[in-house]
């Protein structure tokens, strides 16, 4: 079986960025969260989106057994 090499992505968040985010209003944090959800929806491969949707609907323990 020929598998593509997986690419990993890392993210470093500074303490200052965390503090800045914590100072945002609840409305602004929710807006940011919705923007990230929208971005990921457009950027992720269909299979990954399907797995995430299963997590959201069924929970991790149910999803893990159905995808193994």
Description:
By secondary structure, the chain is an all-alpha fold. The protein has one domain (15-67). It is 69% helix and 0% strand. The chain has helices spanning 15-22, 26-43, 46-58, 60-67. α3 packs across α4. The chain is extended. The model has no long low-confidence stretch (mean pLDDT 83).
Please give the structural blueprint:
Elements: H1 15-22, H2 26-43, H3 46-58, H4 60-67
Helix pairs in contact: 3-4
What's the tally of helices? 4
Judging from the principal axes of the Cα atoms, what is the shape?
extended
- Number of structural units classed as domains: 1
Taking all Cα atoms into account, the compactness measure Rg is 16 Å
Low-pLDDT runs of 5+ residues are none
How would you sum up the major sheet? none
Mean pLDDT: 83
Order of helix and strand elements from N to C terminus: HHHH
Distance between the termini: 17 Å
Output the structural class. Answer: mainly alpha
Q: State which percent range the strand residues make up.
A: under 5%
């Amino acid at each position: 079986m020929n598998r593509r090499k997986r690419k990993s992505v890392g993210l470093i968040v500074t303490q200052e960025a965390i503090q800045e985010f914590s100072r945002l209003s609840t409305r602004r944090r929710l807006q940011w969260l919705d923007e990230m959800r929208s971005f990921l929806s457009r950027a992720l491969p269909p299979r990954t989106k399907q797995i995430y949707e299963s997590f959201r609907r069924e929970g991790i323990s149910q999803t893990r057994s159905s995808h193994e």
